[in-house]
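#structure-requests
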Amino acid sequence: MSRKKKLRLDPFERALLQAVQNEAEGNPTGRAALETHFADPDVVERFGNLARVAERSLTSAICSRDPITRAALVRKLPVLRAELAGPAPTPLELLLVDRIVVTWMQLYYATNYVVDPFDQPQPSAEFVQRWQSRAQQRFTSAIHALATVRKLLRPAPSLVDMAMQTVPETSARRPASQRPAPAPIAADAYPVVN
């Protein structure tokens, strides 16, 4: 028998849930309430962005008993996202940054379980090691994808730009007084003929 977790909802979430239930029952006030709530882009972002939903789930799992780390992580994630996104990210870059942040959380969540594999039964330790390895692969893959997209989005220099670049000039030959002296030839040396 599985027990469902009782959701702790704030008043806004309760009102939104009630509107969803009313709409599901065919009540026209439910649809109107949802349209009003979801007219706010912040509400759509909070409940409709699956990366944020995953971040909230992972934050709850990682910090279930540690409110200090939870408070720090909630503040760290937007900072990390902004650092990775850069000054003017494209929508594709934003999706990849979200992926990097989620896989970063998954990786370190798995890493916390691998801290002491000898404290676990062998099959469990092997499972956790595979979990961490796969999380590392997903994280690395997400970073690689972002780097590739950024490389592809960078404009290639035009032929005009390349033609306008200054190239440092070098002299053709140094004066004889500045050239190094030739190596002395040994008396018993024979010329090599190829």
